[in-house]
Amino acid sequence: MSTNDSMNDYDKGMVNRRRVLGDAWVDKSLANSNAFNGEFQALITRYAWHEIWGRPAFGDKTRRLMVLSTMIALKAFEEFAMHVRAGLDGPLDSRLTPEDIKEVILQAAIYCGVPAANHAFAVAGEILREKGLLAATL
Fold it and tell me: Tell me: the pLDDT tens digits for 27-65?
């Protein structure tokens, strides 16, 4: 029996969550867990991070791109920013480039609307500047 077989769904989800978002983000999120939102944190760890991110059909890079698209469509820009950062900082095999992020936003402009894409470019652009991946001007 492998170590992963002896883990419960929460533990398996936490492995994926830490791999995708990074320890610092997950630790911060868990530090903000309390009696009110703790069950929600456990739920998303079991279902989103184990049941979905743990599925073998798509790798992490594909799932990262899908999440960015979905967050733009939902205009969930706080989550979009979190996943942009995680994508830029992720493991090499699933790391996103500024070009990858740009392509997602361009596609979203057509399917989700120009205002949503415009805001996504602003959010992603600020993160890219913070990380030294984008010059302040052309």
Answer: 999 999 999 999 999 999 999 999 999 999 999 999 999
- pLDDT tens-digit map of 107-120: 999 999 999 999 99
Q: Which two tokens stand for residue 33?
A: 């867990």
- Nearest of 79, 80, 98, 103 to residue 88 by alpha carbon: 98
Cβ atoms 117, 60 nearer than 8 A: no
Residue 59 CA, distance from chain mean position: 13
DSSP 94-137: TPPPHHHHHHHHHHHHHHT-HHHHHHHHHHHHHHHHHTT-S-S-
* Dist CA 28 CA 38 (whole Å): 13
pTM: 0.90
- For the record, the structure tokens of 112 come out as 């989700």
